[in-house]
Structure formats: C-alpha cells, structure tokens
Write a structure and sequence with these properties.
- The structure is a homodimer.
- Chain A folds into 3 domains: about 130 residues, 3-Layer(aba) Sandwich (Rossmann fold); about 160 residues, Dihydrodipicolinate Reductase, domain 2, CATH 3.30.360; about 80 residues, Alpha-Beta Plaits, CATH 3.30.70.
- The radius of gyration of chain A is 24 Å and the shape is elongated.
- In chain A, strand 4, helix 4 and strand 5 form a beta-alpha-beta unit.
- In chain A, strands 7, 8, 9, 10, 11, 12, 13, 14, 15, 16 and 17 form an 11-stranded mixed sheet that branches. In chain A, strands 3-2-1-4-5-6 form a 6-stranded parallel sheet, sandwiched between helices.
- The longest helix of chain A has 17 residues.
- Chain A starts with a strand and ends with a strand.
- By secondary structure, chain A is an alpha/beta fold.
- Chains A and B meet through helix 1, helix 2, helix 6, strand 12 and helix 12 of A and helix 1, helix 2, helix 6, strand 12 and helix 12 of B.
- Strand 12 of chain A pairs antiparallel with strand 12 of chain B.
C-alpha cells in the first residue's frame, strides 16, 4: 500500500516515525507493507522529527493527491480551505483519505463523506477525536449492537490541563493558561481550546457516529472555561463534585442535545478522575450500559496511532461503504439550548443582610425549582457572602430566569455563576 | 444473515432480546437483516428471558451446526468437551462461529483458529473477555499501529466485587463471598472466579491478541484472592494502594510475563477506582502510551453487545483470515514465575521484642533488597505487632527466600503475606 502525506509536522512526522519503527509488527498484523512514497510540505529543507530519506518531498500538495502511485492520502496539514479542495481532489482521483482534521470534518464532513461514498473510497478520521483513543472505532464496531443513549467526553486536553491545575494548585485561570502556553499545550491564541470550539468540532463528529445522523456542528451549544474561577472549583468540591469541560451528546425526546460546557461531575465517577491533558469518553448505551475509553488526546505518536489504525482498517476492509459508520442516516433535530434540562450549580455573592437566604431560596421557590444542596459561607470583610446552590433537574430557560431575578435584587453583589451538573448515572 | 444459537440461557437470551429490540438500528448500521432461525436448547419447554416465537428450537445441538440455512453459529452453552466438537463441526461445515466461551478458546483456541483459517471462516470471541468492553477489537484494530508493552486488567467481576466490598465495608473474604453467591455474582463452587482460573483464561486470550502469539493458558502463573485479609487491605491503603485482582501480560526481555494475582495498585491510577463488578483493561503501548477500557464484564445484554458486535464484524468483513488478529504469529516464551521481577508488599506478624525491626530489615539487607516503605503498628494484647513493608523491584525467587527466612525466625508469629505491587506508570 502506497501512502502520500500532506504535511510532515508533528502528526505527519509521528506517522512516519511509527510506521518506520513498527513496520515489522504492522506488516505481521496486516500482511501488507505500508510505504510512504510522497509528502507535500511547505519547505523541503526544513528540519523534521522524522527520517525522510526514502520519501519524495514536494512543495506542491496537488502532486500528492494527483500522483498515480498513491493509494491513500493522509491529510495532516489542518485548515478547511485549500485542504478541502485537496481532499476532494484525492477522493475524485479514487484515493482513500485519512485525516486528523476535526474542523474539516465538522464543517464539511457531510459533503465529503457523500463524495467518498459516490467514488467508493473511504474517508476515515479516527485521529480527529480524542487523539489516539479508538473511540470512533469503538462506537462504530464494538458498540454496534447498541442504541447509544448519551456520551460525555473530556475531549480537549488543554482545557482539562487548565482545570486540573486550577483545582490541584488553587491557581487562577489566567495564570494556568500562561503556563499551558509555555508548555506548548495551548496555542498563542487559545480561543479554539478554551472557548470550546475544538471540543464542539469533536462532539459533532462523535454524535453523528453515535446516533447515525448528519454532522450538525453549527447546532452545538458551546461554552468555554474562561469564566471558571477558583471559587467555583472550591464550592463544587465541597459539594462532592469536580468541574470538567465536557462535550455531551444525549438522546432527549425525539431529538438530541449537543452541548459543550463546564460541568460539575460527581467525584465518584471515573471521568472526574481523568486529569491533566488526558482525554476520556464515557458512553451510555442500552445493551452494554456504561463504558469508558481513556487515553492521550494529542501528541505526535498518539495521533499517529489513530491515523495508522485507519490505514489498517482500509487494508482489512477496502470495500466498506458507510456514512459515518452507518448504511443509512436518521434525522434527529438538535434541542434548543433554552429547552435543555439538567441539574445546575449556581454561585452567588450576596450582602450578608438579615433574611437574605430566605430571599434567595424564595426566588427558587417562585420558579418552582427544588434546591438539592446549599452552602453559605461566612461573610468577607465587605460583609459579602458566597452562596453555592445545586438544583434538581430544570430547563436552562428557567435557571436563566432565576439568575436574572437574583441579579435584579438589591442584595446581589456580583454576576451569578451558572454551571451545568451531570450525574452521569 | 441467518444465525443459529447453541444455548438460550442468560447470554443466548440476551442476544435474542438485543437483536429484537435494536433490529432497526442494527440493520440501519449494517444494511443486513440478522435473523435467528434455530436454537439448540436442553429443554424446548423451559421458560426463557426472550421471545422464541420466531425461532425453531431443537434439543439436538448438531442440528444447529449442520443446518444448511445457518450462516453463523453462536456458541453460548459453555463447556469444552461436546462444545469443542460442535464448534469444529460448524467450522467444517463452512459456518462462521462466535463464542463467549473463554475456557474453550483458552484451552483449544490454537487448533480451532487453525481450523477456521483452513476453512476460510471466522472464529470470533469478543464476548469471552471483559464482557461487553470491546477490548479485543481495540487491541486488534484501534491499537494496530502499536507494539503492546503490557496490559493489566480487572477481568473477573466476582473477584472485584469481593475486594471492593471488603475494602469499603471492612468485611472478611468469606463473608463477602457468601453475599456474592446470594446475589448471583459468584457460583456455588466459586473456585474458577476466586482462584483466578477464569481470569487466567481471559488473560491468555488478551496476551495472544496483544502480542500476536499462540494461546499459552497452561503457562499463566495464577493466584486467587482467597487468602487476602482485611489486614492486607488496611495496610495497603495506609501505604497509598488499593488491592485489585489483576491479569497482567508484559513484554520482558525476549519473552512475556503472564500472571494473575492480587496486586497493590497506587490509588491515583484510574484502574484502582474501578469498583464492584465492573471490568477494566489498561494497555501500555509504544505509540499511544497508556489507554484504558472500562465497562460491564458480565450480564445478559452486556455480553450480547459483544456477541452482536462480532456478528456485525462478520457482515462488514467476511473475507478476513487472521490468526488472533495477526497474519502471522511470533513465538514468545513465557517467563518462569520465579524469575518475574516486581515490587512487593509483605505483611508480617511478629513478637514485639526489642530489636525485632532490626532483625526484619536485616533479612532484607542480607538479600540485597531495598525497602521502599515500612509501617509498624502498636502491638496487640498478645504482644504481637503487624509490620507492612514494600520493596523495590526484586525477583519472586528472592522475595520467597526472604519469606522463608522470616518464617524460620523465632520472632515470627504467622505466615508472611506476599502480594505483588504494580505501579502501572
């Protein structure tokens, strides 16, 4: 099998390295020799993490997707403009395509998959979600007997690193973000990671595979972690929860919920223990029940592990012709953000005046919302006190109305923090 | 696709139920209608957990494996005598076989797989290890780019239930075993579960798939949990460990270690948090690093999930012809138990006489073994004191020699408990 690679950076270099060092065992598994013949790069003279002595380098990416010797194109350059054109050209030339590009699949996957099915080639993207964890293959194959009810994943390592460090060391968001940037875990512009867009890309892919629907990235409710404070983390911890940034996809009524947001998770749940840059996806399905898949969500060789698994998948199963793992899709509308039901955590800062707790709980009562737990702390030097409240299940619309009522009250001293709770049981 | 089932008990009934309730989504995934046409049972009139109105029942199991309409036989009766003959007959008749029978695969898998390859049919057994967790598919497919370095699994739910309950409630082994039997988690004769034989069956299958070797069940060093005491659990906990019954397969030198035994695992490891009847397998591999797969290790529908995943695998990939997921096998000798290197936990009961600690530590010193941590408790009413010691890495042979020296000493008051430690990092 002859492979052409677009991009020889971290992931591309990792793929070449793993293919070289594990060539003997990979060939023993598949019976096929995988050969990287051609790579499209920006600068042929740049120093790389891999040995390129047997690979022809070209600065023309179209040479790779048009080359008659190439059976499979690995798209490892990222971006969704020129990259889309390159992938389309490769598919139109009858080549299989493997990509680690979640933005490309989330934004253009529907049309690209249609094109691949028409051309009878495969478009695979295990590496686009949760790095090396074989979560797409597990959903498509290992769980194929199941109706998936929900999945909840830590699918952005940068965000999880930041939240873990904030909790373990009591440090501020900005402080930890700077460290993550210095360590290379976060980009100079961290928006995609910390505002949840990267996680929303990945969630839309997971949901489409889990439920057999079209990709619906534009319908994901997305909230990042940049307004999470150490106060939130401490209060959550006192109530028995850890704050994780989760991507959640869930069957609800005739539709699905698609949401990415900070989430209080009970400490006893395994996913609450997933720390640092590690990723994990928890799946609830009707036959198996709860299962969880844990591993490295990024890194050159971890991502290469998923890219090469897709190569082996093509070797074993050349003829398969699926839409996101399904022979036919269903339409499932995405529930509007306002109508999503969940437990909530609210954190308030109030003047510690007589009867303030009665006023606060009265607002919940007026909205017909039950309080599950409440902590009130001693007032600070300004006579302001933190209150943390967890609710029973309630709609986002209702909890936003409670927030509004509290913020309109004279006793209120700061914006009310609202964070979803997921019990995951 | 027409399916014949041998056995309509818990697992067989679960398969029929899941195929019925999820028929729409399974067909939408695969494009193929799966039909159970025939089932071999002991008593056609017995009440069952599934609807059998569309299934022909027969008391002759050979009718199932010989029936011309049957494409795939699901072997769900267990046992390794008649069952082996039935599976061989099915394969010789050109039928694919799926089994949940770990004893059959562990004991006769090598010859059965050879026969299946010769007859160009598939013999699949995802359900034989860790119930519904897709661990075999993950090793064969998701991790196919990797050289596996080691795996460590909680692969017997009964044992994990007992150890979890002993820890959480401070109860004795015998006490919890009786409860497990009452709850149906343990058999009337619990030997297979509590003495580690069931785990050894599963470990031998995992190792063969992970390393691409023959099945070597007869070479697994196996120790059960029946001599674990609450004293062990308490001392381990004080040292920062949880005791789990693990199956461990590990590359070591030119060979592999295959062992099943109680193990101290650092509390911070995710697998230490896997409680009750749940299973989990942690894998270390060269490209991906550490990954973990968690879920239900038993139960009618959880096991059915794995059996039907294998059915879908056959639908997607009829032509594949592999030996345990590999096109060719390697020979890897199993390291002898005496030569296995590991950290160890030792628990002693000694007379609290002057200088006893110097004598104990002197024995370690004489054997050139470093002590990593030591706890000595206050003496009891008989003037006997518990000492718990953890060592650096040392061979089993050496630690057994230390045990012998201690037990030959005048200060010693009980058999020395020895338990492996695995840091898993």
């Amino acid at each position: 099998m002859k492979v052409g690679i677009l991009g020889l950076g971290t992931v591309g270099g990792g793929v070449v390295n793993v293919l070289q060092k594990n060539s003997e065992s990979i060939e023993r598994r598949t019976g096929v020799k995988i050969e990287v013949v051609l790579a499209g790069v920006r600068d042929v003279k740049q120093k790389r993490i891999c040995d390129t002595s047997n690979i022809k380098l070209t600065i023309d990416p179209f040479e790779v997707v048009n080359h008659p010797d190439v059976d499979v194109v690995l798209e490892l350059i990222g971006g969704i403009g020129l990259t889309k054109e390159l992938v389309e050209t490769a598919i139109n030339n009858g080549k299989h395509v493997i990509t680690a590009n979640k933005a490309l699949i989330a934004n253009h996957g529907n049309e690209l998959i249609k094109l691949a099915n028409k051309k009878q080639v495969r478009l695979l993207f295990e590496a686009s979600v949760a790095g090396g964890i074989p979560i797409i293959k597990s959903l498509e194959q290992g769980l194929s007997a199941n109706n998936i009810e929900s999945l909840a994943g830590i699918i952005n390592g940068t965000g999880n690193f930041i939240l873990t460090d904030m909790k373990e060391k009591g440090r501020d968001f900005d402080d930890v973000l700077k460290e993550a940037q210095a360590l290379g875990y976060a980009e100079e512009d961290p928006t995609f990671d910390v505002e949840g867009i990267d996680a929303a890309h990945k969630l839309s892919i997971l949901a489409a595979i889990a439920f057999g629907t079209e990709l619906q990235f534009d319908k994901v409710s997305t909230k990042g972690i940049s307004d999470i404070t150490t106060e939130d983390i401490i209060h959550a911890s006192e109530l028995g929860y850890t704050i994780k940034h989760l991507g959640i996809a869930k069957r609800a009524g005739e539709g699905i919920e698609l949401r990415v947001h900070p989430t209080l998770v009970p400490n006893k749940q395994l996913i609450a223990q997933v720390d640092g840059v590690m990723n994990a996806v928890m799946v609830k399905s009707d036959a198996l029940g709860t299962s969880l898949y844990y591993g490295a969500g990024a890194g050159d060789e971890a991502t290469a592990s998923a890219v090469i698994a897709d190569l082996n998948d093509i070797i074993n199963n050349q003829t398969s012709n699926h839409i996101l793992g399904w022979k036919s899709q269903q339409k499932l509308p995405v529930i509007k953000s306002d109508d999503i039901q969940s437990e909530f955590f609210l954190r308030l800062l109030v003047s510690d005046i007589k009867g303030v707790l009665a006023k606060v709980t009265g607002i919940f009562n007026d909205h017909n919302v039950s309080i599950d737990a409440l902590i009130q702390k001693q007032a600070d030097e300004n006579n302001n006190a933190h209150i943390a409240i967890t609710t029973d299940k309630v709609s986002t619309k209702t909890v936003m109305s409670i927030k509004k009522s509290i913020e309109a009250s004279a006793f209120n001293q700061a914006e009310v923090q609202i964070i979803h709770i997921e019990l995951l049981d």
